[in-house]
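Morning!

This is the sequence you dropped in the shared folder:
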Amino acid sequence: MLENIASLLSDQCRLVKDRPIIAGISGGPDSLCLLSLLREHGYRVIVAHFNHKLRSDADADANAVEQAASRMNFASVIESGDVREYAALEKLSIEEAARKMRYRFLMAQARHFKAQAVAVGHTADDQVETVLMHFIRGAGLAGLKGMTYRTLLPAFDPVIPIVRPLLDVWREETIVYCAAHGLRPRFDPTNDTLDFLRNRLRNQLIPILESYNPRFREVVKRTSVSLADDHEIFLQVLEDAWMESVAQQTKDFIAFDSMRLTQHSPGLQRHLIRRAIEILRPGNWDVTFATLERAAVFLNDPARRSRLDLTGDLYLLREGALIYLLTDNSDLPIERWPQMPEGQDAVPLSVPGAISLPGGWKLTCERWNMASLAMEQARSNDDPFQVWLDAQHLTGTLELRARHDGDRFEPLGMDSHEMKLSDFFINVKLPQRARNRWPLLCMGPKVVWVPGYRPAHSFRLTETTRQALYFSLTHG
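The structure's back. Tokens below.
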């Protein structure tokens, strides 16, 4: 496949020759082959090597990389870190700790040198091993498609891509290339140990599977290419569902339209939640199928539970027509609800008259002298933020106020049976954080109307009504 490398560099990896590239070079045959090919095709390269300090000859590897860069007239940056200490501190495997430290280093160099990309020497063999690792651990389409020529890793940088020009090249080809071009690669003896999962796949599982099908590696590679094409189709479906379902997105939370979200299949719901988690917590490696399945069950819960602890510090919150993914520290907006002004417990209301509330909300009041028309409008009304009430019973001073301790309410339809206002709020599932300053239309101690829900039974229109008062709470 090396004869196609020029088009892979420009077309698949989308590299240009007038901007620098950070090349992550370990000193092995794959990375030296990559470095030589970048030089051969005229790319501007800065060599970057991270010394993991895991082996006694790790310093020798770093020196060899520095010398190889010098022979090719490339600048180089060499850094080191204590991977074992970092793994213990963060409770990570050695493999994962090494990967995180290496990519943080590479991206830091890319930002420093204003590089267009970070190039790494992953080969077709690495692709096969990656797909098998994902399969064994459990993965969907996104995992089984394996790696791509160009991708973003938002956990390390949201803008600078990782490119893998050798993804179609087998490891044996890079060894042959190095020999033919006089390159002297370093061979990592830990690749032969069975301490790491990838090594066990390479040295034990793949040879066994090749005894069933000698072309097993080619089959897996071909399958990953096919799945990658399928994944592109799915990504467009996911993007359309995302645009349709997300009501609001900030750095602290993502709000879904509950009705639109639950119209999608459970599988698509899981992917939408996964995407939301990845946006709020880039690099969250612990998004399991079980976590996403719990989220899907919550979304479609007929009991409509209000909260589900999801993963880490993230949880799902159901509030009215919205479902939020957020953390305990998220500052959710309250403007979509009517609220009394801070520090103002009550505001008198004239008839006719109007009261302005925070967030663009406004209460208006009008007198209607045609009771029959008011009755007709009230019967056909499906907007809980407007109501027609019997003026004969509204003889006292009206005000809009926040709730008081001990407030009681006689909801329409209960025929003079009162209940605690707090219980009414619970029954109608008014979000708790909106209750304290929810505006109530009151006459003295009596709650006449809870905007957005119901009027009091005693103030409803009846056949004996001669005059009505019309109240409307609007937004915007």
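Headline: The first strand starts at residue 21 and ends at 24.

More detail when I'm at my desk.
O.
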